[in-house]
Structures are given as structure tokens and as C-alpha cells.
Amino acid sequence: MLVLPGIRWPLRLLLLLFSVCVMAEYCDNGTGECKELSPAECPVIFHSLHLLGSGPKYCDEFNDIVCCPIPLNQQNVQFLEGSRPSEKHCQEYNEARTACQSTPFIVGGTKASGREFPFMALIGTKRVNSSAPPNWDCGGSLIHPRFVLTAAHCLETDETKAERLDPNFDSLKFVVRLGELDYNSTTDDARIQDFRVVNYIIHPGYDDEDEERGFKNDIALIELDRSAVFTDHVAAVCLPLGSGNENSLVTAAGWGFTKEGLKSSHLLKVNLQRFSDQDCQDRLRFKIETRTQFCAGSMTSEADTCNGDSGGPIFVQHPQYPCLKQVIGVVSYGLVCGSQGLPSVYTKVHLFTEWIESIVWGE
User: Which ranges carry the Peptidase S1 domain (predicted)?
Assistant: First the structure.
């Protein structure tokens, strides 16, 4: 996560056009689309409010975003429950798991156990043919045997993309490690798999022109040089079926900095409380893009993510599969690490599911 200490944040953020930044957000298993409650965007709901005794279904009640019905002849059948590419593969991931560890909620940060989060990825840089260990800078989530989900700002470089990927060009190269627990230990419960990066795709709507305003559409995909071998130590996480707004508690994991100011070589986990959009903006003193971002932190402790956790997942238990998690957020940025009552900002994953599926599964 990028931390921007001591910055006087503006009261308003410049917003990118939603149509450029993210795909459409669907609801009610693909029979509706999240739209503004207005006569232009969703006339069928706007003009029928007096007939809806219990009120409309909201995607984002704070911003008056409702689930607007899509005409039957325009509904896309791939969004019906059980038919999305990512959901089909999630079922396959579940069938491949033979055992798993239960993950009870914890208070504050603590060390993760081996095999507890087999989808966690370390993302770092090193020079070709160098014997020095990589510099581990970010985290990520394995969502497919050959693809890792991470934050776009983790992949910013001084070179061109072609130079960074060219093994004959003298520069740092991205590397990915799966199955790790403590990268400074050889006796931990880990079975690592190391990979070169053959391609990475930053979301076309990613915006980092003004770091004082935070990142927009801070999400990216990394393609590995070969398929990961699924084991008890390496497995994929599922993409979300919906927004995940119903989850008031979420979990983060990573190898980032701790309150002592040092990076943790051992994978850490922490439970975080989701903040309402209004509470988030009041406490951060600036507006986040609530369609594509959410906030989480703690009102009672210093629980938080920090530098080095960037790109890592915010996840919840899968509602159907006890051995699987759903990644609902990507660690993006914050003001100060570990400040009680001051949340950090995360990229919502579900709004980018179509974009992810089009690259990972070609659908």
C-alpha cells in the first residue's frame, strides 16, 4: 500500500469517466444493472418508487445507486448464477482442494500458519542471473494457475514494458513466488514455487498522475512463465460473485511493514472493519471513488495494512466452499499506517470481473 504521510488532501477528487474505468456492475444474478436513481439512468424504478412498498434494491444506497432491471431480451446469460467463467473455475478449485485449515477471525495482526492462505503471492524484482535474493515489494493473489491479481502501482517502472520483460535488457525483472510463509526461513511450513513474469496488464483506466489524490482503478494482472502446480501450499482464490458489501469484517494478509517500522518476512494476517463511504471520507478528509473503492481499518486498534502489502488481497470466506476464500479488494493506498480510526483505501474487485475474465479465460 502506498502511504502518503503529511499530505494535505483536497476536498474533492477528479473522477475519471466510469465508462472508461470499469465494466458495468450487474446485480440480481445478471438480471439488473447498477445505475443512478434518476429519470435518465433508471426510469423504470424512478417513476415507480411510489409502487415499491419496501423501496428499490440498492447497489450503493449512500450514492443512490439502484439495481435497475434489464429487459429480458437484453440480459446476458453469462451473468446468471453458476455460468460466469470465474465461477465455473472456482468450482474446479474447490474440487481440487483435499484439505484446508479453518481461519477464525483474529483481533489485531498475527502470524499466519503454513497452508492457511495458499493463494498468497509475493511480487518482487531482481536482476537476471543475480545470486542475490529478490526485493519483495508487493503482494498478490493467485486467481488462475498462470495469473496473479495485484495493484497497478506495483508494476510502475522507469523502463518501458518491453524493456522490463526482455531478459536480454539489463534491468530489474519482476518475479513471483507462491507457497511462501517466511522468506527468511528454510524450516518454515512452506513449499515455494518461483516464477518469471512474461507479461503484465495494467487496467487501462489506471490513473496515478497526482499521487496526492490517490490512485484510480488500481488493479492489474501478472502472467507467469508457466502454470503453478496446485498443492496444499499453492492454490487459487475465487473472484467475488457480488460486491461483498454485506461483509462488515474482512481479512488482509501480507508481508508488509509492521508498527515497528520493519518489513515482516513472515506472512501476517489481520481482520479489518469496513467503514461506510461517508465515515471513510469524513475520517480521511477527502472523497474516494465509492464506485470502485472502499475503506477498511479499525476503530479499536491499530490493525491496518501498510507499505509492502500493496497489491495483496482483502478477502472473505466463500459462501459455498469452506476451503476457499473470495478476494473482494486489492490493497491500494492510505495516509498513515496503523492509526486507530483512520482507514486505508482498497480497490473493489467485483467491478473489474469482466475485464479480468476477458484476459485470464479469454471470455
Answer: 106-361
